[in-house]
Amino acid sequence: MTVDGAAPYKGLTQPIPLEKHSLYRKIERIVRPMAPGRVLEVGCMDGRYLERLRGRGWSVAGIDLLPPPYGYIVQHDAGSPFPYEREFDLVIAAEVIEHIVETDAFLANCAAVLKPGGTLILTTPNLLFWINRLRMLLGKTPKFAYWDYHVRMFVWNDLREKIERHFAIERVQGSHVLVGVRRSSLFEVFAKLGDKMPTLSAHFIVTARRRAEAERRSEHRAASRS
Residue 101 belongs to a domain with what CATH number? Predict the structure, then answer.
């Protein structure tokens, strides 16, 4: 479930061009080489990115709490099981998991609708963004952490452990280490540093592949014996 009474998240609904969006510009670089298939975006809001993918031949579906602007988007709580079968080649969840109370159930729900070998692209704020480390050292509130609609915050070791229960992580990137390129293309250097030092960046961008059921059971048995 998502947190009750939380203010709706509006950060990604602002009209930032996708090419200048700190997260979606990197998501696009991950998705662009993929052959079109069926994609679900969890927390898709106005459907801007799904519309782009639909124009490139993807079969698209979306979930969001807000009233849907397109017929392929379902108004649904992302904290509940998704109203789909195991039918997707790609699931995108940008800035969603920090809003969800039951983190493991959310990741299980993402895995449940992916075809074998399907891909998850997940982003979330980094509690230990280097600016947050400095702010906490000075006794100040870290960015992102106490916003009313954020009920979970993650450091990399914690997030990795949770994702790896259901997925094999292929790559972790960072959004940027200071400011994004929407303010100036000169800030591209901060975006590149985010990929080199994701544990110091503002947001994690994780690409992972759905684990086979047999592989997960085998690892669980091995962990139980150790």
Answer: 3.40.50.150
- Assess if residue 186 is contained within a domain: yes
Whether residue 140 lies inside any domain: the answer is yes
How far, in Å, CA of 98 to CA of 106, rounded? 11
pLDDT value at position 57?
98
pLDDT in the model for residue 2: 45
User: Does 152 reside within a domain?
Assistant: yes
H/E/C letters for each residue in 43-54? CCCCCHHHHHHH
Which residues of the chain register pLDDT less than 50?
Answer: 1-13, 214, 218
Cα distance between residue 51 and residue 41, in whole Å: 11
CA distances 104 to 37, 165, 203, 212, Å, are 26, 8, 20, 17
What confidence score (pLDDT) does residue 108 get? 97
Write out the H or E segment, with its range, that includes residue 170: strand 167-174
Domain count, the chain: 1
Range of the domain at 180: 18-225
Q: What is the pTM of this model?
A: 0.84
Residue-level pLDDT at 15: 62
Closest by Cα among 21, 150, 31, 166 to 105: 166
Q: Do the domain assignments include residue 103?
A: yes
